[in-house]
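# nightly structure sweep
# worker-07 picked up a monomer target from the shared queue
# config: single-sequence mode, recycle default, output format = structure tokens
# input follows
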Amino acid sequence: MRRGGFNAFRNAQRRSQAARGRGGSRTPWQSYILKMDPGETAGVRVLPPPDGEFYISKTHGFPAQPCTADLPGFDGKCVYCFYNEVDRDFRDKYYPSVRTVACVVDFRYFHWDMTGDKPVVHVCADAAPAPKRVRCRHCKGTNEEISKRRFGGQKRWELTDDQRDQLGEVNSKLQLVCVAQSDPDDPDSVCEHEIDILGYQCGAEGCEELIISERDMETHDISDALSEEYECETCGETAWLDPIMVCMSETTLSPRSAMMSQKLGGLHATACEHDAEPGSIFGRIVEVTCSGRQVKTRGGKERTRKSYNFDRNVAPWSKVEEDLAAFGFDDEEIKAIATHDDLVKRFAPFRLDPSEYGGEEEYVSAVLGKQLERINERIKNKGDHLELPDGWSAKKSGKSSTGAAPWRRRK
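# output follows
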């Protein structure tokens, strides 16, 4: 039974690293962050994280400042977290925020208006790469720079917990579609029949102990059992439960009978020529429509809380490289767009590079000192001045990173 990929989205939500940091850019921020206003629709494709884990961004206040409490080497230290615990006014100003960050390919086209004090980005009204009939007023404009169409490309999609759960629900539905090769002579064929889940077994390597039966699924709420790792009494290992799946193509047997028939070498063993291979949010373009409602903030002001609706059946199952090739990109361009961004580097606190410091302790001290510096800059007009807690060093050594050198934070 092929099981690869079924838990990819679930595991990407569950296990992640935390970091935060932003760098400046002369291009509009909408060129690298997926932004949708209520009423807008976009075709996007979620890229699978290279290590199987979605990135979790933890910040404080607005403009967002990096939280370091969960970062390797910091041992829970974060200046913002420390003063949040002891000062209510500080907490109101530097409230914690958590976002799940997914890298996606935005298949829309845009127009940049750089004539004003701030860049203005317009969504092109024509979705096709080469529309036969131009409807977009910006495409028809006389300003050559504004009329230029710019492909959305890879962007970061920062999701709240509710928005992430919405994406997860779409993924759960896509997992019940079989994407195995249906025709042995056609490598591009896709089954697309329904997958039925007959139970759950131990997910530890080499162990297939049945943990949740089909009867259990009918009579009990198993959501809690699937929300955490399970300690198997048979093998002694702790792991996420794996689903027992069967593709419902080319069979009139009930799911339970089909499974028994397979185990006993019955007719169904030859009737269905492939194992169930579940789809996922990573396997096709989905159409996302943004909606919003007004809510009050902590300060009593109104803001728009966004949610998303998904149409998961607007595009065929494919590889992202195939989608981009259909939009006319060459191999080099496709590689640049489809290669997942290094979010650990992208969200490094204040873009400081650990390799430019004498060691981990010196790097941590520099980051904590930068946090304190940012806070004191903001409160200096009130005559206030904060210090690092006792035992937290803030040596002024090393130098600020340009973000140019390739590096990876130690795990």
